[in-house]
Design goal:
The protein is mainly β. It is built from five helices and 29 strands. The protein has a six-stranded mixed β-sheet with strand order 10-9-12-16-14-15, with no helix packed on it. Strands 20-19-22-27-24-25 form a six-stranded mixed β-sheet. A five-stranded mixed β-sheet has the order 21-29-28-23-26. Bound molecules: copper (II) ion. Copper (II) ion (CU) binds next to loops.
Length: 464
């Protein structure tokens, strides 16, 4: 009897466009309360001035490095506001190229998303532009250009946007580490050849100098008895990091800005370009020094930074902020598939190789038209079939999603994402309820793949 009923449910669920049966969980109802539909602009107006320009700074090992920078520094200034505040950024472009600013992970009005031609005209050299939005979510976000990203981000244009909670948890210290890698030549300067055939055919440009906040000698000095919030961002063009905190008690409390359902032990987390990870560190055992490493390729670990611990006090106890509502969506894989994207490469195009989504290489933002329409406020399940052997961290603008499965095997990640790494030949399923109308970009965050065509637009429209 049970078996017959289950079969019927599956048949009903497989019919395209159907509603969930009444005895099955409704993913939209399960989603309710995850994050707000609208901003609550009840705070202050915070105005920032940003200028992008060529400059020279003491970076990496302290030598003078020619970079492109926001306000003369790499990483750029951290823009910090509190939830409810409105962000206004007066931006001036002193670069020798057009540019824009994209607010990665922030649910902004579509016109503020920084996608050239699609949401705004590119900002010409010498010109200025103002961005203004009220963040809907607290968390760790970042900003970077969306024009010739594989060159502009590589040259140093990125910074953090931190949106504090209305009542921030009482961490003794709040630290941000931006991970990046630089491809330096014999002259110890940035190799000025971008989108090379090698980088295009592989996993983008991987550098030969890995830095944390622009330096190879980053050390965090803390005392036992501290509870530290450590925010990690991967700002690299292509490199993936698997951070290892050297045995420190580290819990994941937020991914891609949003809090997790519960604090999670830091197991092997693949921090792909664009991803953020907020960690809760309980500092114990003074008088020691730990090395933080990257283990993406387990047999070739990379040193990232050091944590030096003094003192002997016990760590403060307070409730973790990681208690977000995240739907289980446990029957999601039996819901109809909204669309299946196929990711692949072929010869051709201006760069000699094109990265494609459904056999289309993005032909420039001037010609951007949505490849898929999603209904605002409704559930969608998207599948990505990676027909290539390379890595593709797929990033969606304007919405969060939840990873549902890898190669058809259900996974319950107790958190949302805005970027997920797809391995070679892998198929993943994601679920989402888009809340913000507009034309949103979806692209690979290996910037060389994006430049070579792996970008498209998703339109979120009110359902008819
Ligand atoms: Cu890719």
């Amino acid at each position: 009897m049970t078996h017959v009923r289950w079969t019927l449910v599956l048949l009903i669920a497989a019919a395209p466009g159907c509603r969930p049966a009444p005895d099955r969980p409704d993913p939209v109802r399960e989603f309710a309360g995850s994050y707000p539909e609208a901003a609550t602009p009840d705070g202050a107006l915070k105005t920032f001035e940003l200028t992008a320009a060529e400059t020279e700074v003491a970076l990496i090992d302290g030598g003078a490095l020619k970079v492109w920078a926001y306000n003369g520094q790499v990483p750029g200034p951290t823009l910090r506001v509190r939830l409810g505040d409105t962000v206004r950024v007066r931006f001036t472009n002193r670069l020798p190229q057009e540019t824009t600013i994209h607010w990665h992970g922030v649910r902004v009005p579509n016109a503020m998303d920084g996608v050239p031609h699609a949401t705004q005209p590119p900002i010409r050299p010498g010109a200025s532009s103002t961005y203004e939005f009220t963040p809907k979510d607290a968390g760790t976000f970042w900003f970077h250009p969306h024009v010739r990203s594989s060159e502009q981000i590589e040259r140093g244009l990125y910074g953090l946007l931190i949106v504090d909670d209305r009542a921030p948890p009482p961490y003794t210290r709040d630290v941000a580490w931006i991970l990046d890698d630089w491809l330096l030549g014999a002259d110890r300067q940035i190799v000025p050849h971008f989108n090379t055939p090698h980088d295009l055919m592989h996993d983008g440009r991987w550098g030969n100098a890995i830095t944390v906040n622009g330096r190879t000698d980053t050390a965090l000095k803390v005392a036992a008895g501290e509870r530290v919030r450590l925010r990690l961002l991967n700002a690299s063009n292509g490199r993936i990091y698997v951070p290892d905190l050297g045995g420190l008690d580290a819990k994941i409390i937020a991914v891609d800005g949003l809090y997790t359902r519960a604090p999670l032990p830091l197991a092997r987390f693949e921090l792909a370009p664009g991803n953020r990870l907020d960690l809760d560190l309980a500092i114990t055992g003074g008088g020691r020094s730990l090395v933080v490493t990257d283990h993406f390729i387990p047999q070739r670990p990379n040193r990232l930074a050091e944590i030096e611990i003094d003192g002997t006090a016990a760590t403060p106890s307070f409730a973790s902020p990681a208690k977000a509502h995240v739907p289980a969506w446990s029957s999601a894989l039996s819901m109809p598939l909204t669309h299946e994207f196929r990711l692949d490469a072929r010869r051709g195009g201006a760069l000699g190789i094109e990265w494609t989504i459904d056999d289309q290489a993005f032909a420039g933002h001037e010609h951007a038209h949505p490849s898929l329409v999603l209904a605002r406020g409704r559930w969608s399940r998207l599948r990505f079939v990676n027909a290539s052997a390379r890595l593709h961290p797929i990033h969606l603008h304007g919405m969060f999603f939840k990873l549902l499965a890898r190669d058809g095997i259900a996974v319950d990640e107790p958190f949302f994402r805005d970027t997920v790494l797809i391995h070679g030949r892998e198929t993943i399923d994601i679920g989402l309820v888009p809340l913000d109308a507009g034309d949103w970009m979806m692209h690979c965050h290996i910037l060389e793949h994006a430049e070579a065509g792996m970008m498209t637009m998703l339109a979120v429209r009110d359902p008819a």
